[in-house]
Amino acid sequence: LEVKGCRELQSEVLARNLCTLCGACIGMCPYLVAYRGRVVALDDCDLRQGRCYVFCPRTSVDLDLLSQTMFGVPYAADELGTVREIVLARASDKAVRSKAQFGGTVTALASFALDQGLIDSAVLTASDERILPSGTPAANKAQILGCAGSNFVAAPTLAAFNRQSEGDAQSIGVVGIPCQALALAKMRASPLENHNNIDKLKLVIGLFCTWALRYEGLARLLADKVPLNQIVKFDIPPPPANLFQVFT
Predict the structure, then answer these.
(1) What is the mean pLDDT of residues 102-107?
(2) By its UniProt entry, which PANTHER family does this protein fall under (predicted)?
(3) DSSP class of 16
């Protein structure tokens, strides 16, 4: 993994509009913050080596190194990658399914991990009344259930992991999309001495990512059609539907 600093992160990623807003660079220093759906540099940082650059999923990636670090085997460049078992699942709890996007599997897995003591807290994603999403810590089933459902707006979820890992939590689970899972893998494989307390990360539930929209553009579009605080759910049906559904 290449080791550079915040200036290179700005020139190679932020200035080129390559940022996925995963949140991996936020909450580690006073320079980088999330503001209305984008990462903003508040001041110039002249450090030549920075976690912000190394952890970013848009900087150089050594897939063999990450696969060896995570799974103990070389990178498998096929459709499924490294798998132990493939199952079809849905939540058995009707209360979970009623809140979930579809089957509630992710919500059920996060709740089960908490109940079984595999994790003592989870980092999930939830949206406020302006449909602006952010990373949200959850320490009980009710808090996990409150984050059920899919978000289609890019969210700096890993900023919440960075904060949570500095606290008392010892076993953290994260639910994230591919860019966020990649950033967490880069944290674990980082050559830097400070790994962001990555040893506290005990579970990653990875999601597929179809759309992760820019907040400001989507908010402007929707505000002309419906009050944002009345929106309760989004959905994007599979092809060939070609629909973006908004539920109030």
Answers:
(1) 95
(2) 7-HYDROXYMETHYL CHLOROPHYLL A REDUCTASE, CHLOROPLASTIC (PTHR31332)
(3) T
